[in-house]
UniProtKB/TrEMBL annotation:
<comment type="function">
    <text>Destroys radicals which are normally produced within the cells and which are toxic to biological systems.</text>
</comment>
<protein>
    <recommendedName>
        <fullName>Superoxide dismutase</fullName>
        <ecNumber>1.15.1.1</ecNumber>
    </recommendedName>
</protein>
<comment type="similarity">
    <text>Belongs to the iron/manganese superoxide dismutase family.</text>
</comment>
<dbReference type="InterPro" id="IPR001189">
    <property type="entry name" value="Mn/Fe_SOD"/>
</dbReference>
<keyword id="KW-0560">Oxidoreductase</keyword>
<dbReference type="Pfam" id="PF02777">
    <property type="entry name" value="Sod_Fe_C"/>
</dbReference>
<dbReference type="InterPro" id="IPR019832">
    <property type="entry name" value="Mn/Fe_SOD_C"/>
</dbReference>
<feature type="domain" description="Manganese/iron superoxide dismutase N-terminal">
    <location>
        <begin position="4"/>
        <end position="86"/>
    </location>
</feature>
<dbReference type="Pfam" id="PF00081">
    <property type="entry name" value="Sod_Fe_N"/>
</dbReference>
<dbReference type="InterPro" id="IPR019831">
    <property type="entry name" value="Mn/Fe_SOD_N"/>
</dbReference>
<dbReference type="InterPro" id="IPR036324">
    <property type="entry name" value="Mn/Fe_SOD_N_sf"/>
</dbReference>
<dbReference type="InterPro" id="IPR036314">
    <property type="entry name" value="SOD_C_sf"/>
</dbReference>
<dbReference type="InterPro" id="IPR019833">
    <property type="entry name" value="Mn/Fe_SOD_BS"/>
</dbReference>
<feature type="domain" description="Manganese/iron superoxide dismutase C-terminal">
    <location>
        <begin position="93"/>
        <end position="193"/>
    </location>
</feature>
<keyword id="KW-0479">Metal-binding</keyword>
Length: 197
């Protein structure tokens, strides 16, 4: 990941009706782009310019530099989120990820319910994550604002953005409907790949 707005892994209308092209114009084309541009401006001509985006996240977090942390984390989070979605997604995971979900949540349906509930109930703005902790167990993490499992040493596998700009154009204030639609486009192949990075 670089300090440039990445290409989407699909066209802006590929996820309709879950996300419309208009939402992508604002969420990706304006919000995500602003985080990238802000971050590039913050690190220009400083030692930070040599760091990777994950290093900038950790550095901003450790130094309590809110501007660097928020913009780096939001750039990384959004890029990760776009890859968690696919026009060929949905259904249920397979292989190792399915085994871990069944082990740690009892079943896929129980995991889906717990993840959706965490995302719906997260107050204000933030992200709901599925992450692998240092002990090898899966956790659901509802994190505020720009926060990410990376700063806790956990491996992100799946996320949903529940900032209002992610869904307001298409769903107004019905966050729950946005979350319901999310399960129809989850890119389980991408999530599974994160286990082996």
């Amino acid at each position: 990941m670089t300090l440039q707005l990445p290409e989407l892994p699909y066209s802006k209308d590929a996820l309709r009706p879950f996300i419309t092209a208009e939402t992508f114009d604002y969420h990706y084309g304006k919000h995500h782009a602003t985080y990238v541009n802000n971050l590039a401006g913050l690190v220009k001509d400083t030692a930070l310019s040599e760091m990777t985006v994950p290093q900038l996240i950790q550095t901003g977090f450790d130094r309590q530099d809110a501007a660097v942390f928020n913009n780096a984390a939001q750039h990384w989070n959004h890029t990760f989120f776009w890859h968690c979605l696919s026009p060929d997604g949905g259904g249920q995971p397979a292989g190792q990820l399915q085994t871990l979900i069944n082990r740690d949540f009892g079943s896929f349906d129980q995991f889906k319910t717990q993840f959706s509930t965490a995302a719906v109930k997260l107050f204000g703005a933030g992200w709901a994550w599925l992450a692998l902790n240092q002990q090898g167990a899966l956790e659901i993490l509802p994190l505020k604002d720009a926060h990410t499992p990376l700063t806790a040493g956990k491996t992100p596998l799946l996320t949903i953005d529940v900032w209002e700009h992610a869904y307001y154009i298409d769903y107004r204030n019905a966050r729950n409907k946005f979350i319901d639609g999310f399960w129809e486009v989850v890119n389980w192949d991408f999530c599974h790949q994160q286990l082996n990075l």
